[in-house]
Amino acid sequence: MVTSNTILFTIICVCGLQSMILSGLIAFKKPRTLANLFLAILVFFYALIAINIVVVNIMKDYDLLHVFRYMQLEMIYGIGPALYFYTKCITKPKFELRKKDYLHFFPLLLEFIFYRTSIYRTGSDGLYLDVMPTESYIYLTQQWLGVISIWTYSIASLIVLKTYQKQIKAYYSKIENLSLKWLQTPIIIYVSYHFLWRVITEIDRFVFEKSLREYYFLPNFTILAIITCWIGFKGYLQKEKEVVNLKPFEEKIKNSNKTKDQAFLSKFEKLMITQKPFLNPDLNLAMLASLLELKPRPLSSKINQNFDQNFYDVVNSYRVEAFKERLRSDDRDKLSLLGHAYECGFSSKSTFNHVFKKMTQQTPSEYLLKLKKAS
Fold first, then answer.
1. Residue 245 has pLDDT above 70, yes or no
2. How confident is the model at residue 241 (pLDDT cuts 50, 70, 90)?
3. Out of 61, 101, 131, 352, which could bridge 346 as a Cys pair, Cβ 3.0 to 4.6 Å?
4. Any bridge partners for residue 284, and if so which?
5. 212 vs 222, higher pLDDT
6. pLDDT in tens, 2-57
7. Where exactly are the structural domains of the chain?
8. Which pLDDT does position 253 carry in this prediction?
9. Which of 108, 114, 118, 113 is nearest to 44 (CA)?
10. Three-state secondary structure of the chain
11. What is the rounded CA–CA span in Å between residue 199 and residue 193?
C-alpha cells in the first residue's frame, strides 16, 4: 500500500468515473455497433483498474481491506480481447463475432473465479510482507500472465491496423479520415504502460526493497485514468465511417522484370494528362476504374503490376508532379505552397508534406528554394 493522496485520488476518481460514464454512452451510442460495445468494455475495464486502486487504499485506511478483497475486480484478461476485437470491427466491414471467438474471453471467467478464492486474498495481502507466502507468487504469476495477454493482443491489434492502413491505399487517394491512426496511440501507450509498470515494480521489489513505491505508484494510476478518459472521449466522438470491403484489393505485385502492359499505361497516362482526375481530392479506385472503363479489382492489379506502387502512391505521384509544375510557372507567387498543394488534389498539409518528402527526399520549401536559386 501507499500513503493516501487526496489530490491524486480525486483525479483518479474523476477520470475513472468519467470513463465509466463514457463507456456506457459508447455502448448505447447510435447506431449501436459491435465496435462500440468492445470499445465500451475496454474503457470500462481500464477505468475499473484505476478506481480499484483508490478504493483499496481508502479501505486500507479504515482497516477494511479484508472486506474489499471479497469484492475486488480486475478484468485484465478482458482488456486484450476487447482491444483486438474493437480493432477488427472498425477495420473490417460486417465483422461478426463467431462462436469460437468467445473462447478469447474464457481466461476472463477464470480470472473472475480466481478473485473469489482465498489464494487471491492471501496472495495479494502477502505482497506487503517481508517474506511473501506461496500464494503471493501465484498471484504475481496470474498478474504477469495477464500482462502478457495484453501485450499479445495489443501486438495483434497493431498488425491488424497496419494491414488495414496498407489496404486502404489500394482503394483511396485521401486517407486522412480513414487511416484510424488515432488508435495506434492508445495501443502503444497501453503496451508501454503495462511493460514499464511491471519493470518498475520488479526493480523496486528486488533492488530497492519497495522503498520507491511512494514515488511511482499513485502517479502511474493517475496517468492511466487520464489516458483512459481521453480514449473514452475520443472513441465516443468518433463518427461511423463507411469502409468498403478491402479484401479484393490486398494483392500487391512488385516485380520489375514483369512485362508492362503498354496499352494500359498509354491509356492511363492519357487520362491523367487530359482529364486530370487526380485533382479531385476524393478520387478513389472505383471512380478511376469508371473513367478507364474497368472494374476496380482488375484496375488495382494493373496498377500494382505496371507501376510497382499502390493506387494511393500512383495518384499522389501525379499530384506531386502537378505541384512541381505549378512552382515552375510564372504564377507560383499568387498562392502559398499549401494553396498550390490544395489545387493539385491534396486535402491536408500533413499528407502533402509527408508524400512530397517521401517522393522527392526534400520538403516543399527546400524544393522551392532550389528552384529560386536555379532561376
1. no
2. low
3. 352
4. 172
5. 222
6. 787 889 999 999 999 999 999 999 999 988 889 999 999 999 999 998 898 888 88
7. 6-237, 251-374
8. 47
9. 108
10. CCCCCHHHHHHHHHHHHHHHHHHHHHHCCCCCCHHHHHHHHHHHHHHHHHHHHHHHHHHHHCCCHHHHCCCCCCCHHHHHHHHHHHHHHHHCCCCCCCHHHHHHHHHHHHHHHHCCCHHHHHHHHHCCCCCCCHHHHHHHHHHHHHHHHHHHHHHHHHHHHHHHHHHHCCCECCCCCCCCHHHHHHHHHHHHHHHHHHHHHHHHHHCCCCCCHHHHHHHHHHHHHHHHHHHHHHHHHCCCCCCCCCHHHCCCCCCCCCCCCHHHHHHHHHHHHHCCHHHCCCCEHHHHHHHCCCCHHHHHHHHHHHHCCCHHHHHHHHHHHHHHHHHCCCCHHHCCHHHHHHHCCCCCHHHHHHHHHHHHCCCHHHHHHHHHHHC
11. 10
pLDDT digits (tens, 9 = 90+) for 248-298: 444 444 554 567 899 999 999 999 999 999 999 999 999 999 999 999 999
Residue whose grid cell is 469484492:
71
d(C-alpha 276, C-alpha 279), whole Å: 6
Residue with cell 507466502: 133
Could you report the per-residue pLDDT of 316-374, keeping only the tens digit for each?
999 999 999 999 998 888 999 999 999 999 999 999 999 999 999 999 999 999 998 88
Amino acid sitting at position 179: S
Question: From the CB of residue 65, how many other CB atoms can be counted at a distance below 10 Å?
Answer: 18
Placement of cell 470513463 in the chain = 19
Tell me the average pLDDT across 117-127.
86
Residues 6+ apart with CB under 8 A from 245: 93, 94
**173 exposure class (CB count in 10 Å sphere: 0-12, 13-18, 19+):** buried
CB 102 within 8 A of CB 86: no
| CB-based burial label for 131 (10 Å; 0-12, 13-18, 19+) | exposed
Second CATH level (architecture) for the domain 251-374:
Orthogonal Bundle (1.10)
Query: Cell numbers of 282, please?
Result: 476524393
Torsion 34-39-40-45 (CA) sign: positive
